[in-house]
Write a structure and sequence with these properties.
126 residues, mainly alpha, 3 helices, 50% helix
């Protein structure tokens, strides 16, 4: 390719003339960087935007451990209720299933432990 300004010979891929720095053709438009996408690789499986639901879920699972089910199960039940209310106010937060697991499993372990303790006390008095 020859420069239209000075007539110097340039490589076909050159943007500027090697002799006079005249722009031979415009540079290709610079590609915009790709937008940063949120890394939601779990597909919304973990409701990190609904902390009540998430904490309720894990407390309910750990309430299956004998001896601490009374405390953790009761807390999981009430946090599950709060997480479900939070989900109803903010559906984009997710956590409906986690809240229900906290409510059901926490209720069974927490209130089941209370009934078991009462039953043991009654049986020991006879």
């Amino acid at each position: 390719m020859y420069c239209p300004k000075c007539g110097a010979q340039n490589d076909d891929n050159s943007y500027k003339c090697v002799s006079c720095s005249y722009l031979l053709h415009a540079k290709p438009a610079r590609q915009m960087p790709r937008p940063i996408q949120s890394d939601d690789s779990l597909g919304g499986l973990i409701p990190y935007k609904n902390p009540y639901s998430l904490i309720s879920y894990y407390l309910a699972v750990f309430s299956l451990i004998p001896g601490i089910g009374l405390i953790l199960g009761s807390i999981a039940f009430f946090l599950g209720m709060k997480g479900l209310r939070f989900y109803q106010e903010h559906p984009e937060s997710g956590g409906k299933i986690h809240s229900w697991v906290g409510i059901i499993l926490g209720g069974i372990c927490g209130f089941g432990s209370i009934i078991l303790v009462i039953f043991i006390i009654i049986m020991s008095q006879q």
